[in-house]
What we know:
The chain has helices at about 45-65, 70-80, 85-100, 110-125, 130-135, 165-180, 265-275, 280-285; strands spanning about 5-15, 25-30, 35-40, 80, 145, 150-155, 185-190, 190-195, 205, 215, 220-225, 255-260, 295-300. It is α+β, with helices and mostly antiparallel strands. The relative contact order is 0.14.
Amino acid sequence: xxxxxxxxxxxxxxxxxxxxxxxxxxxxxxxxxxxxxxxxxxxxxxxxxxxxxxxxxxxxxxxxxxxxxxxxxxxxxxxxxxxxxxxxxxxxxxxxxxxxxxxxxxxxxxxxxxxxxxxxxxxxxxxxxxxxxxxxxxxxxxxxxxxxxxxxxxxxxxxxxxxxxxxxxxxxxxxxxxxxxxxxxxxxxxxxxxxxxxxxxxxxxxxxxxxxxxxxxxxxxxxxxxxxxxxxxxxxxxxxxxxxxxxxxxxxxxxxxxxxxxxxxxxxxxxxxxxxxxxxxxxxxxxxxxxxxxxxxxxx
Length: 300
């Protein structure tokens, strides 16, 4: 199956009343395989939207696992990347912090396992114990070296940032739009980032797929669901992989929603919590970071 519907929607408005000429401007595009929709109410909306789209495209050139020549693809292919982009280093540094706090549950080095399970699913075959053992041997965050001058992976390793990059991109676009003088906006990259409040007052009411609503004002929200994307047609083998077993997580959570100061942190933590075994453990992981809240924890 290997599909997960994602879209990036950005809705923004000035805090002050708009001039009559400032009609709602809508612009669409693509990023990380997802549809992008920007809706801006601002006198200079077309120019601002163009700059936001250019920023999204620039970030895709860093984080994409599918765009030829992206920084991440070059790193995975060569095992090393000289003078890596600041954004890649920053995102990987946060990933490392979540990896440490989660006792290794969140691990961007699971890409060899992802590739193995994806190839087996496409071929309609089972993953053999031998192939699983070989892929597991290529996983391990401790063998990644981060340095402003160079990122280095051990031989055979590869990274995926699918559990954090969508949130990181939301944060970067929010920063760009805030610098443009925009307030009261909501960005949805599959994870939510609210800057300011709702244009009509109060918080942004974000409805959860698992039920309930979270009020966002100046913070972010991410939801992870182990079966949100599946490898098999029956929908039983989820996309979140346990680096300890090398297999899709057989956890207890149907959906996990976390709010945090940044979308990247919320994204990574919601993914990591899917690999925890009980509510005490899940809440303890949230407590390891400042101003993080568990918003919803739904058992299978």
